[in-house]
Write the structure tokens for this entry.
Amino acid sequence: MDRVLREGAFTGETHIVTGAGQGIGNSVARALAAHGATVALVDLDEGRLKEVQSEIAGSGAPEPIVAPANVTDEEAVKGAVSATLEATGQVNGMVNVAGVTRDARITKKSYEDFKLVLAVHLHGTFLFTREVAAQHWHPLFKENGNQPLDDGVNRYIVNFSSVSARNGNIGQIDYTAAKGAIEAATRTTAREFAGYRARCNAIAPGPVNTPMLAEVGPDVIAGMGRATLTGRIAEVEDMSHFICALADPKISGYVNGQVIQVNGGMYLA
Ligand SMILES: NC(=O)c1ccc[n+]([C@@H]2O[C@H](COP(=O)([O-])OP(=O)(O)OC[C@H]3O[C@@H](n4cnc5c(N)ncnc54)[C@H](O)[C@@H]3O)[C@@H](O)[C@H]2O)c1
């Protein structure tokens, strides 16, 4: 993975990335590691995470931590965060990428699928956000006499919305509702975490070339590319490079509580 920031921008830091097994989350993990971060890799399949661990360590980046967890499993999320803290003593960044789709129009949508999609996106984002704060950032705040943590340490959360949260998308009542809720939750998290001096932002991607998008088929994907002002759908690096910039306090230290559209001009917010 090419560097897009100065060398070692995240050296000595620990960043947790969910959905790190494939797609955007995998690219985010590799990009943060390429800038020196120790990355805790979260996804469902431990074997796949071990492959990602060796690929990243083989590239010369710090060896990642394998922290398999279903993001909807409260105990597993607690365990992934505590294992990360045991390994490195800190969490600087939390990137909530894991997601699923179960597209079907409202009349055909099963309640089980609706609940699953809400759970993975919204509940998973909540659980990881809560655990990082409850296990790490809030205790630091208390030790500091409940005063803001003006210690210069990088702390941030990046959540994943989608262009479809604002624009709507047929077949995705569950997905768009989850993403809209994540945008609202991002603003509340930013307000609550101000005392930790942790920035919380979300990105709302347009269509990105990943296994998730491949499910809609090549003709639909070609149409999506034409619907942007950039003339193409995004590659995963369009997202992961931007997240490096958002994670870096030297670039984005004054960006907080925002939902940032990264959609090639498909939707103009
Ligand atoms: N691809 C796009 O066009 C697009 C557009 C807008 C937003 N997004 C968002 O970007 C994020 C990543 O999407 P992607 O395209 O890389 O998807 P993807 O399907 O390629 O990868 C998602 C990853 O999340 C993991 N995951 C799913 N359920 C999980 C669970 N319960 N616990 C732990 N891990 C789980 C999967 O195993 C997979 O590795 C999602 O939040 C998605 O909604 C994607």
The domain at 14-207+236-262 is CATH 3.40.50.720 (Rossmann fold). Residues 18-19, 21-25, 43-44, 70-72, 97-100, 120, 160, 162, 205, 207-208, 210-213 surround nicotinamide-adenine-dinucleotide (CB under 6 Å). The chain has a mean pLDDT of 97. DSSP finds ten helices and seven strands in the chain.
